[in-house]
Amino acid sequence: MKRSVFVLLCAVLLLMSFISSAAIAEESILDKVTKAGVVRLGSNNDTPPMNFIDEKGEWTGFEIDLGNAVAEKLGVKVERVLVNNKTRIAFLANRSIEMCLANISHTRSRDEQMDYAEPSYFWTGKIFYAKKGKFKSIKDLGGKKIGVDQGSNAFIAAPQEIAKHTSKAPEMLSFQNSAEGFLALKQGKIDAYSQDAQIMAAVAGNLAEEYEAVGGMIWSPGLYGIGVPADDSKWKDKISFVLQDLLKDGTYEKIYQKWFGPKGKYPLPINARPRLPKDTFGDMLYIWPD
Amino acid sequence: MDFFIEQLANWKFYLFGTYPSGPLTGLALNIVLALLSISIGFFFGVVLGLGRVSCRRYVKYPCSIFIDVVRSTPLLMIIFWAYFMLPVMGMQLSLFWCSVVSLTVYATAYQAEIVRAGFLAVPFGQMDAALSTGMSRFQALMYVILPQAFRMMLPSFVSFFNSMFKNTSTVYIIGVVELTRTGIIISQLKPNRIFASYMVMAIGFWVVCYTLSHAAEVLEKKVGVIDYEAYKPEICRQDLVLFPLPNVVKNMLVSNKCK
Amino acid sequence: MKFLNLRYDFDWGIPFREPFLGWLITGVELTILIAAVTAITSLFIGTIVAMLRCSRFKIFNIPAKIYVEIVRNIPGLFWLLFFYFVFPEILPFGLGDTLHEFVKYSVVAGILGLTVDNSAYVSDIVRTGLLSVPRGHIEAAVSTGLNRFQQFRHIIMPEAFRTILPPLGSRMIHNFKNSSLCMAITAPELTWATQQVESITFRGLEVTFLATVFYIVLSLIMAALIIKLETHFKIDLTSIKEQKT
Fold first, then answer.
1. Domain boundaries in chain C?
2. How many domains does chain B have?
3. Which of A56, A94, A182 sits opposite B22 (nearest CB)?
4. What is the distance between the alpha carbons of residues A80 and A45, in angstroms, rounded to a whole number?
5. Single residue among A202, A221, A240 that ends a domain in this structure
6. Which chain C positions have a beta carbon within 8 Å of B201's beta carbon?
7. A182: Cβ contacts below 8 Å, ≥ 6 apart
8. CATH number for the domain that contains residue A178
9. Size of interface B-C (CB pairs under 8 A)
């Protein structure tokens, strides 16, 4: 009898500690970061060409360079925190990191948990990647096996997209990272893999010629934004201004050319810079005037 | 066979990655993780194991609950708890320390059971005998009980090290670049050599584990093995308690099953 | 009163919302399915390997010993990855492609991997059980005229399985817990479901909590069941003695 009471007590204590969670009113992250002189920057390490670890074991990639440039402009040092597709949003939501450049494309459900600095710094999108000539259009993907990254919103979005074209629902599988998914695609375990175009091309490497985007098209826009914790507009504005300054003074263009320009490491056929519509604005970059 | 030799050219990467210029990865990381989690877990394991044989209920039940809960949770779940819960609690740990924490929690619970069985295997009269020779309780525990208990626990510890070493491969799921992840990375670079890179990975694990399991066997033959299943959880040992309680308090707290 | 200052607001509605609830339920079903199937297959293979290891003939006992030594010293996770990524590649005659056509090859690979991993431990346990049967009992069986199969069926197996029931049970519980590793190879079992919910909603602690409770409760139920079985099968020696006198 006494024993059961004790166990009950323990259970209640455990529950209490769970329920009591506090809304934290803190000073702005901007003040905290400038005071400490360090910004905690979330990066992942398995999505070339955005950010990955090279043969020497060092972090490299487009987002690493851009993140360093932002930190440099802020005048603070970078403390790099490893995130992955599953943890990047959670870490921003619980403020373990102050800034995150880890190919986070803008979605509404993510925006509920975090904020994005403006504008989105890289304009790309999701494709269905499959063996050349295997599928003509997205319609053919009905009833097939489709892989995605665990942590990608495509797990729900891809079946919805395919449902627009055909009534046969695809079978979805989620992999721990794109490289494992591509291996499965290559071995024929899945028929198509859904991921952002430039990541897929880099993961496939020299095998990229054998594969193509189904229908040759992006089916869902992926506008990458710098993730910042929610409800801190001072910090969000600061990062937005810094990013736009980088766009203005040509630092962004230099990094873009290094990675995606015609002479870059991963030449990109599409123009992924943030820009305003050509017919109205000419080739103007997405920058707010003073 | 030549593709196998080609894999072995990568032996440095399999064994310790790009260390010392880069982070320590590969087989060495598995060994470091296992050693760290077992040695930290040993300390807590002794405390919890002694706690579980204690006759004081406020000590015994928390220890028992912790041990049973951890032992019936998959290691992967413990890893995810450490990975997602610690940042929420305001602790920002690197991936390495996060895996050390989760493996330590796991190791603690299992080692506590080894320690408990070891202590219970020490015959009842020993403490009284030691006390009657004029030793203090602490001395008796230090010089009589503990040496015997640890001697009996030794084979179990070695075979637990073996299983813990294998368990370190689980942290690959949160992205730690240990031997499994190393093998996968290499297999992805050369997908048509996938069999060879998995072979090298297996050999890496096998060599370490085989050595350990044979060490355990040799020790078992020398020292003997404890029968874990013979000990029921409700057993407690008054004679192993370090500081005896006054009788009034004891009657309030100590359960009747005590001997 | 606040014991912990959490930077997280618990929303216990999440696990019960669609499609998350559906994922979790399939996850629970699949976890139980994988655990049950691997328990049976590994018991079967483990017993055969144990019998081979006890054989007098070197052709039988050496391969069995090699099998156990190889499997037991390599992590279970490796076997899962091996059967998912490598095994179909090394099969001849395009059998691997046939495997890929399977609706859920990930589950099949998970069952294969866990079976291989578990069977080595099971065979070790069964072997100790077989060796624990006293020589005299077998001799008595021979002298009453039982043939080799009958000896096995009526004397050795019942005695051995009584002694090994507790370790065998804890091994099966361990195997049940190991089924969570199948998430690495995309099998949609419970741990995978919690991670999937986490990655879509970014709020995974609620489902992780529920899943942990599920694992703990089912482990405890299995442990209780094993104790029940043990008492059920126990031979009451005192009553036998009474019958003698």
1. 18-244
2. 1
3. A56
4. 11
5. A221
6. 78
7. A129, A193, A200, A203, A204, B188
8. 3.40.190.10
9. 110
Cα distance between residue C112 and residue C106, in whole Å: 10
- For A57, the closest of B22, B62, B188 (CB atoms) is B22
* Alpha carbon A175 to chain centroid, angstroms: 16
Instruction: Give bridge partners of residue C214 from the DSSP assignment.
Output: none
CATH for B38: 1.10.3720.10
Contact A239, A28 (CB under 8 A): no
For C27-79, the DSSP string reads: HHHHHHHHHHHHHHHHHHHHHHHHHHHT-S-HHHHHHHHHHHHHHHTS-HHHH
Say if residue A108 is in the same domain as residue A246: yes
What is the phi/psi pair of residue A150, to 5°? -70, 120
CATH number of the domain at C18-244, please?
Answer: 1.10.3720.10
Decide if B136 is inside a domain. Answer: yes
Strands of chain A, DSSP E: 38-43, 46-47, 51-53, 59-60, 77-82, 99-100, 114-116, 122-131, 145-149, 171-175, 192-196, 211-213, 220-224, 227-229
User: CB distance from C242 to chain A under 8 Å?
Assistant: no
| Cβ–Cβ below 8 Å for A85 and C4 | no
Query: Structure pTM?
Result: 0.85
Write out the H or E segment, with its range, that includes residue B63.
helix B57-71
The contacts found for B95-101 with CB under 8 angstroms, 24 or more apart, are B95/A82, B95/B174, B95/B175, B95/B176, B96/B33, B96/B176, B98/B174, B99/B33, B99/B168, B99/B171, B99/B174, B99/B176, B100/B33, B100/B36, B100/B37, B100/B40
Query: Residue C160 is encoded by which pair of tokens?
Result: 């051995």
* Residues A17-35: tens digit of each pLDDT: 555 444 445 678 898 899 8
The contacts of residue C131 (CB under 8 Å, 6+ apart) are: C54
pLDDT in tens, chain B (259 residues): 666 777 777 777 788 877 666 678 889 999 999 999 999 999 999 889 888 887 777 888 888 899 989 999 999 999 999 988 888 887 778 889 999 999 999 999 999 988 888 888 877 778 888 888 888 878 887 888 888 888 888 888 888 999 999 999 999 888 888 898 888 888 877 777 788 888 889 999 999 999 998 888 888 888 776 665 555 555 666 666 555 555 555 555 555 444 4
User: Cα(C150)–Cα(B7) distance, rounded to whole angstroms?
Assistant: 52
The CB density around residue C179, as the number of other CB atoms within 10 Å, is 30
Instruction: Give the closest of B18, B87, B185 to A56, CB-based.
Output: B18
Which structural domain, as residue segments, surrounds residue A136? Answer: 126-221
- The residue with tokens 């309780």 is B137
Decide if A205 contacts A248 (C-beta within 8 A).
no
The tally of domains found in chain A comes to 2
Instruction: Name the residue type at position A103.
Output: N
Q: Give the SS3 label for residue C189.
A: coil
Separation of alpha carbons B197 and B203, rounded Å:
10
DSSP summary character for residue C187:
-
Pair C73, B213: CB distance under 8 Å: yes
Helix axis angle for C190-201 and C205-233, nearest 10°, is 170
Residue B85, chain C, CB below 8 Å: the answer is yes
Instruction: Provide φ and ψ at A31, rounded to 5°.
Output: -65, -40
CA atoms of B41 and B119, how far apart (whole Å): 17
Q: Which residues of A touch C200 (CB under 8 A)?
A: 109, 153, 155-156
